[in-house]
Amino acid sequence: MKENTMPTGTPVITVSDAELDDLRARLRATRWAEPWPVDGWQAGTDAAELRRLVTHWASGYDWRAHEAAINALPSHFADLGGTPVHYLRYDGEHPGALPIVLTHGWPSSFLELTALAERLACPSRYGGEAEDAFTVIVPSLPGFAFSPQRPALTDADQTHDLWHRLMHDELGFRRYAAHGGDLGAGITSRLAEAHPEAIAGIHLLAAAAPAGYDPAGLTPEEEAYLAAAAAWHSEEGGYMHQQNTRPLTLAPALADSPAGLLAWIVEKYRAWSERPGALSDDYVLTQASLYWFTGTISTSFRPYYEYAHQLTRRVRRVEVPTALALFPADLSRPPRSWAERTYNLTRYTRMPSGGHFAAHEEPELLARDITEFFHAHR
User: Which of 6, 79, 80, 130 has the maximum number of C-beta atoms within 10 A of its C-beta?
Assistant: First the structure.
């Protein structure tokens, strides 16, 4: 089995005092936008909340503590045909643990998945059974955090192909599982469609739309779902339209202003969580700090642009066993029949609580659902 390791104790991120001072100076020198006569989050990021977070980021937030915690994670790097990929590896506590690759989304990073990875790798520490353990691989998407962007928009290897090379060729897993939400759900779906011989099953938090369907054949539940999805895109989808169409018009502002970067992502953390405060200030600021110090907010937009411009393979039909877990505050909650148009759906779960960042908000619920699904596929 081939393993790409780093010397023990080697940091994946070391921010100099000068870089940290520069961030804090930029935050303190923020040129604030003229306020509107609106309440709270009515027209976007709440100005008072943003000022509070910016003040904390500049003066109270302890980056060094979080930097040390990131560097203590089990990081590795692989060179996949000239494309470096950062990943975390959590070895399962039980011999023969089923390997699983977990894929994050936007505006997120590998950090969202650490609590879930720990529970899957060592279930006995959390009240589970050791024989249910997985060996967990958590890659950073290309262009996020410590994984550089892919060299060209038209690369032959898309992200799902890189994941198969990582799991199968580099790490030697002949058969493995996969899980993903948001962007990660699409990557996981394409991975299963392209490499079904290697995939034991997939667990998703979102479902790809069918490649085609007859509107006359929709059920009332499906019609209601599509109407709700259209309303969501009209009201909430402005960020996606910008990132789909003109991301490089937005990118310089967010790469230059940490307050602007925070405003762009914090609204999503609030709107897509089940309740305000579900994600702590330090969690949100650590994610923002990763984007800032690695300079990756611009490259994190690429998956949106590539998908919108037909540079990403579309999901047509996934035949491997598939589970779909829907959290009540997530962006999309399709009916079972809708998902069955695209997937061999063998498990469909409506969760009692949680939102878009379920791996961080509700890691126990999510770990249990993944574990129960793969009981039949180990």
Answer: 80
Using omega within 30 degrees of 0 as the cis cutoff, is the peptide bond preceding 107 cis? yes
Q: How far is CA 235 from CA 44, 105, 265, 304, 307, in A?
A: 11, 21, 17, 18, 21
Between CA 122 and CA 128, with CA 123 as vertex, the angle to 5 degrees is: 160
Examine residue 4 and state whether it is found in any structural domain, yes or no. no
- Asked whether residue 301 falls in the same domain as residue 335, the answer is no
> Does the pLDDT of residue 2 top 70, yes or no?
no
Dihedral sign computed on CA atoms, order 258, 263, 269, 275: positive
Are 109 and 204 in a shared domain? yes
Instruction: For residue 44, count other CB atoms closer than 10 A to its CB.
Output: 14
Task: Specify the pLDDT at position 7.
Answer: 62
Q: Are residues 148 and 240 in the same domain?
A: no
Residue 78 lies in a domain: yes
Q: Which residues contact 60 (CB under 8 A, 6 or more apart)?
A: none
Phi and psi at residue 321, in whole multiples of 5°? -55, 135
CA gyration radius, the chain: 20
Residue 224: domain span = 17-30+41-66+219-306
